[in-house]
Amino acid sequence: MARHFAKEKPNYGDAAAAEQGQQAANVYDNEEDGYAQTQNSYSAGAEGTTIREGYKPLADSDHVVTNGANQNLKTRKHKGEKQEKTYKHPALQVLSIILLIAGIVLIALAGYLFWQQHERYQQQEEVNEQLAVYESGNESDAPVIDWAGLEAINSDVVGWIKIPGTVIDYPVYQGATNDTYLRHTATGEYSLGGQVFMDYQNQEPGMLDQQTLIYGHHLLDGSMFKAVSDMVDQATFDSHPTVWYVDENNTYYELEPLLVYKTVASDGNVRQLNFDTTDAFRQYLADLLDKASASRQDALSIIGHTDHVLTLITCNYDHGLTNPNRTILICVPKSEAQDS
Length: 340
Description:
By secondary structure, the protein is α+β, with helices and mostly antiparallel strands. The protein contains eight helices and eleven strands. It has helices at residues 15-30, 69-132, 147-153, 226-230, 234-238, 278-290, 299-303, 334-338; strands spanning 135-136, 144-145, 157-162, 169-173, 197-198, 211-215, 243-247, 252-263, 292-295, 309-316, 325-333.
């Protein structure tokens, strides 16, 4: 309990006396037990008193301390903040490590996939180079084929396809199904690009049905049938007026592009090989002309004299690599085109 002394504070009249009086008042106040300081009730302008310059009543002060309790509270608060920061720091550190590891894993995975893709393209290039030795002749001329050499590797070979001015210059195989050479080479090894192949339901060696279908992959390095996909551009289409197909009997077919169009992978109309009548076949071609991306200017007139077509099929990636559709190039024998 605080002790109370009934001491009377003296009254001072001038400035010096007021200062002495203030000191006396402070002594008086400090005789309390320190739990609370007495506020000074002097006010500026009161008769007989003078306020010292810089004086601030304790009521307005930011430094009132009660038995050190406030200071202890602040100290505990600061310690709590430090403890909280110390608690969060390891969690952030762990998160940073996890993100770093995830980044390294993703980079390593991307590097592996790139290497794997490169190796597969390299393998495909080697396969194509090994088979290319069985074809001779100038780039713009009809291919000259060593059939005995090709058949010694694989007897499923039925022909050779060539489009001068492009990389398309490949043997054509026909398997028991359309999956046989989709991802396998002529020697039976797995390959990204497989082999160019004829539809298994076509009569070998080709050009005997009203429509002969030949398939080839669209590889991103520009090989196989990528050039077919490029022909949706009219200028590119016009720059390749000749297509050669040579069958295993060494029969030569000189053809020219008639039209190119795009369709979805599930389009069942693509694999129509023969029709009930010639008129039905020609109507089929006329319907395709309506949705062509590029074509000959006289395509409709040529269709009126067409009895056979060679159709080259590949993927297009207009909707992404994981959802490929089809680009289809229809070629007609020049002998039939000239009759128009």
